[in-house]
Each structure stands twice: as structure tokens, then as C-alpha cells.
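Data availability (excerpt). The following record was deposited with the supplementary files.
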Amino acid sequence: MKKKVLALLTMAAVAAGATGAVQAAEELEDCKLTFLSWYPEEKYQPILDAFAKEYPGIEIEFQYAAPVADYLEKMQVLTSTGEVPDIFYIAAENKTEMIENGYCADISGTEAVSKLVDANKSTYEADGKYYGFAPTTWVGGYFYNKDIFSELNLEAPATWEEFVNVCKVLQENDTRPIIERGEWFWDSFLGPFMNDYLAGDMDYHKEVLEGSKTFADGWGPYIQKWYEDLIVPGYVGEDLVSVSSQEFFSEFATGHAGLLAGHAGHLLEVQKLEPEFEIGFFPMPGTEADVKVVYGAVDCAVAISSSTEHQKEAEAFLNFIARDDMVQLYQDMNGYVIGMEGIESDVDPILEDVARRYSNGEIGVYIPQGNWDAYGTGLQQQLIASSQELLLGDIDCDTFIQNMQDKLAELKDE
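Predicted structure:
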């Protein structure tokens, strides 16, 4: 039904506004735009095809690098060699670096930016100017296998204590409690940190960067809690260090793991594998049942190179994505919440409640690297390295925290 409605909307929009679209296209130069994407080409293809029909003189040379590490590395290579694409993505991990170093054009005057809600607009703002178009926000937590939960008489946990008990029961019944990727398994400590600490001090990371607080002040107790409650008993297993994205999806979809830590985009990938069980969802819990902050962030943003020779044409591509009919196709790529005025999000029913609460301003979203400004890439790399070392028993929790603090000091001295 959704696809039929979108098709009709697209046809109606083209029919009603064909003259304006052709006129706009005629005002632009024929050119080739290079585009480095965060999303693979097969996902982007419906948008690319629609753009090509309305702007036949503008060719999109599409490139893809897988997020997160590969994409950031690719972008660093391109900036260092002076080969920045006309259009590219910026994300939590590198947005400050890209904006402050002048790689991103000011797109404040575009129609695309004007349509964004404040949260999605302000994420890529600096000094009153806007440098990225991010039409969606991801919210996440834990997806769970309802069949396994039913067989073991388990319910979706509302508190950390209940969550740890769920992991215990799953393990006792020969089911991997949690599946995560090799670079992301650290996020299981976020539930208590977000809801017990961060909800009362949303400026925590700013204070860490300024030096009035440290990683030990906020993160310290929760890294220790994560280690003692999940790593020591083996609910977060050592083999997660080497888990790839595909194993991440398939281990859950085949029923070998009871919980998958992730978001709507991950849910889409799991559903493609056609699991033979019903999937449930719950936010990452704190010690109390009241969820105030959830795992999530405004999505990565489409940016335009400050050195492009085709800014008008690149802006046309942004404005095209921002059209009501096209942004629905954009949301199809990730299943996230649309952060644009007057446009409803067609999220998976599993995520409707948490998406509604975010849209209504009832809960905040958090991911660490979105709060680290220019130090995002370096601190993210350190977080990955230290979490892997901790899981493998090479360091203790105090060293984990100290490594993060030392890395911040090192980055500040560069």
C-alpha cells in the first residue's frame, strides 16, 4: 500500500509541477556532480533515477564507502589530497572537523534546510550557519526474539536489573544474550549512563571538553557497571570483537542471539533475511523504569563542497531530496524518523512508540561521538580500541577511562 501511495504522490507531484521543474532544470548548467554516499547505491537508486528524469543535464557520479570507519577514512584521504567530492556526507564523528576546516559550503539559504525541524537543523549548525541537510533521526535500543522470550517466560525489561536477568536466562538456555558488531559492542553501557546520569547533565560532554569534568566523572561508574554486569559473566562475549555487520544481522535473524542492539536501519537489514519469529523492541534501560534518553542521533547529513564549481546544481540535488515525495523515498533507505515540518514518519510499528515520544519532545537522543566536536574521530577510534582491549582482558576499567582522557589531551595538543 505504501509503495502505491508513494507512486501516486510522485506522479501527481510531477504532473502538477512539471513546468516549474523543467524551468528550474533549464536554469542550471549541464554538469557532472561527484557524490560520496554513506548509503549504498542500490538504496539510493530510486532517488537517483527520479532526479535523472527531472534534471537530465546533471549527471551524478556515485561513490560509496561503508560507514562508519571506512567512510571516515575515505573522507580523510579525499580531504588530504584535495579531491573532495561535490556532494558528500558528514556525520557525528567528523562534522566539526569538516565544518571548521572549511570543506563544507554554507547551505543556509536552501529550501532543504528551511524545511528541517530545529533538532535536525541545529545538529549541523556553526556560528549561525548551516552546513548539512539531515532529514532523518535514528532512534534505537534492543530488538528481541519474541519466540525465545515466550519460550523462556521472559518479558521486555524495563530496568537494568531486569535486563541483566534476561541476559542470564538467555545464556543459561544456550542462547547468545547480545549480538553486536566488533566496533560497537560498547554501547550496552549507555542505558544506565543516559538515564541515570546524562538526563540530569546534558552538557556533560561539553564540560569534559572544557576540562571542568572528566570521563571518570560521568562514564567511570557506568563502564565499571557494564564490565561487571555484562562482560564478566560473558553476556557480552569476547568473540564480538571480530563480528562483522553481516554476522551481526544473521546471528539474530537465525535465532542464535536473543537481543540485537541497534536501530531502524538494522531492523530493515534483519527483516531482509526473513527471520521466522516476531521481533520486539525496548529502549536501553537505566536503573529505574522511566526512560528519559534513548540511544539515537540525528542522522548523517548531506553536505556540499565549498570548492565545488557547481554549487547551484548541488543545491538542486539537496532541494530535490527535500521534496515531500522524495524524502519519503529517502526514509525508505533507513526507516528512521523524518525530521521535517509537516511530514509524518512511516516507521516500523515496532518503533512507533519511541519515535512518537521523540517527535513529541518527551525523550532525548544520545550517541557519544555526536558530542565530541573536533575530537570526534580520534575519540571514537580510542573508544573502539579501549573497549576491545577491555573485553579481551588486556586492560581494566580504570585504564579504559584514562585512555579516553589521555586521547582527548593528545588531540587538544595537536
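Summary of structural features: Residues 1-23 have pLDDT under 50 and may be disordered.
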